[in-house]
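Pilot study result, target chain (139 residues):
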Amino acid sequence: MAEIKTKATPESVDAFIEAVSDPVRRADAKAVAALMAQVSGETPAMWGATIIGFGSYHYRYDSGHEGEMCRLGFSPRKTELVLYVLNGSPEQDAQLARLGKHKTGKACLYIKKLADVDLAVLEELMRDQLTSMDARYPR
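Predicted structure:
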């Protein structure tokens, strides 16, 4: 079985954020990190080379594949922020309708800049994701 590339590392979250070249994206990354820390009650850690994660859980699929991943996380990419906060719940569909300008993937929320979204709704999405994680992967 292949080794999992995305795992917690000892790298500095602060150094990673400071290296973000775009000043708006860097400021947004600091704000998202602070919000996720507040919502989760967890200290941020680097997961792989580009994901800032909060907390962790152990998963195991029916196939036997298993590993550890962060409960909540994000990555300040070159063109947008990628937030790992989606779980496909109907509640989140309603929240996304109120969020503001964004795109979605299967479990990812893509935001160009925080000024485009309602931060209270973003916090709701984060809290909903943690509630979902707690139900599926109790601590």
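One observation from the pilot: The CA atoms of residues 97 and 121 lie 10 Å apart. A full batch analysis is planned for the follow-on phase.
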